[in-house]
Amino acid sequence: MVGGGQLARMTQQAAIALGIEFTVLSARPDDSAARVVHDVTVGDPDDPEALSAFGRLCDVVTFDHEQVPAPGLAALVASGTDVRPGPGALAHAQDKITMREALTAAGAPCPRWLAWTPETTMAHVTAEIGWPVVVKTSRGGYDGRGVWVAQDEEGLAAVLAQPLPEGARWLLEEHVPFVAELSAQVARSPHGQAVAYPVVQTRQENGICKEVVAPAPDLAEEAALAAQELALRIAGDLDVVGMLAVEMFLAPDGSISVNELAMRPHNSGHWTIEGAQTSQFENHLRAVLDLPLGSPAPVAPYSVMVNVLGGEHPDMYRAFRHVMARDPGLHVHMYGKEVRPGRKIGHVTVCGDDVDELLARARHAADYLTGVIDE
User: Fold this and answer.
1) Do 187 and 213 sit in the same domain of this protein?
2) Where on the phi/psi map is residue 242: left (φ > 0), alpha (ψ -120 to 50), or beta?
3) Could you give the number of structural domains in the chain?
4) Half-sphere exposure of 112 toward its Cβ, with a 13 Å CA cutoff?
5) pTM, to two decimals
6) Which domain CATH number covers 306?
7) Which of 77, 251, 269, 370 has the most C-beta neighbours closer than 10 Å?
8) What is residue 191's predicted lDDT score, i.e. its pLDDT?
């Protein structure tokens, strides 16, 4: 797996159970996965030579993030290893305009959008999208970075005056009114077998996923099935191999539209470690190795995951005794990352049949771990 973050760390746990020899290419020896994976290559994931050498060590290469530059992906392919998902699929997760073009051509529901060019005028924005407008960098944005909301022409001009990441363009999208943010995850293997997990509801805070409820409460069965079918269709149309997360908006009228794509295990699927018969990490491995996929069925009526975000208290271990004694059914996952305010450093999961109770339990644990509360 290219990348040494927490997704690689949790994928390694699934690899142990399957007896898979798992190695990571990690930028630093103290990255999240590098701390626990036995076989680590330290190297720059942006360096084609490092990627080519890493690829020659492996039968299959996959990713814990999509932002590997095209020369590096070409080097991996040239190394003779199987790259899954392949560069053609990854292009749609790497560049939001490429994604929008493909989804629109395939008839998938999307917000109204346009790519800003030197010929684009404010009149075009008004006519084709309307105000306010969501402005995104086509490359490089994550966890709320690279996204702005411009209320008017003056606000849009101010955003467009900022420098773009290398190779990026400006994407302008309709500001979609929504009643919930959803994520539909599917796993797909090279020979086309695919499974769909229950559609979940996510709650964002400052652009970062804070909470996940699986399955999405109060979501009409018709909308849930439509979201799963759409995710499966996108996986097939884009030839995705491995996990695919399709982040969506649920409109007041019950319709859905695609916001983002992620071609890897995803934060919205961490609940599956305890809450599904087969976790997203195991199914990602099964998919990229072309093994039969495992059941995505939930093991409880509901699962709730709350991210643990870094605060002012770097020592989380001191809080374990309280949260574990208070709630023996709670599952704590820490990523071995340096604590910084707002950074994802872990998550907690609880499973049961009462959503409000589960949310209260998980929120209490996350708040106690980060020092927001002390009782």
Assistant:
1) yes
2) left
3) 3
4) 14
5) 0.95
6) 3.30.470.20
7) 269
8) 94
